[in-house]
Amino acid sequence: MASQSRRGGISLPERRGRGSSKQEPNILVKINNSQIVSTGKQAACDAVFVAKKLLKSTGKAAWIAGTTFLILAVPLIIEMDREQQLNELDLQQQSLLGAPPVGPPPPK
Q1: Is 102 within the bounds of a domain?
Q2: SS3 40
Q3: Range of the domain at 35
Q4: Given pLDDT bands bounded at 50, 70 and 90, which one contains residue 51?
Q5: Counting Cβ atoms within 10 Å, is residue 98 exposed (0-12), middle (13-18) or buried (19+)?
Q6: Is residue 89 a part of any domain in this protein?
Q7: Where is region (Disordered) located (predicted)?
Q8: Greater confidence, 98 or 42?
Q9: 76-91: buried (b, 16+ CB within 10 Å) or exposed (e) per residue?
């Protein structure tokens, strides 16, 4: 039995010039190591950091505004609606009893 077992597939030949130490880096390595690319990466990281902070604080502000609206404004809206219904009921009862409707005088 072989000391090294292989599982299916094929083996690729070694790349040429891999052993030479005088090989100069390819164009992608040169571009990746350039000052412009590293500055761009840093700017992108900074932009992502600021965006995350902004989203987090915006979410907190939305939560505060939403809960404040539920606690303060919704009961006020309900009470105003209830008052309006009560006024309409009073006007309806007055018209049934024969009292003159309260409102602007009829035009002449």
Answers
A1: no
A2: helix
A3: 27-97
A4: very high
A5: exposed
A6: yes
A7: 1-26
A8: 42
A9: eeeeeeeeeeeeeeee
Radius of gyration of the chain (CA): 39
* Cα angle 19, 24, 26; round to 5: 105
For residue 65, being part of any structural domain is answered with yes
Instruction: Transcribe 51-108 into DSSP letters.
Output: HHHHHHHHHHHHHHHHHHIIIIIHHHHHHHHHHHHHHHHHHHHHHHHTPPPPSSPPP-
Number of separate domains in the chain: 1
User: Strand, coil or helix: what is 38?
Assistant: helix
- The secondary structure element, H or E, covering residue 21 is none
User: Tens of pLDDT along 59-103?
Assistant: 999 999 999 999 999 999 999 999 999 999 999 998 888 766 566
Q: Which residues contact 31 (CB under 8 A, 6 or more apart)?
A: 37
pTM: 0.41
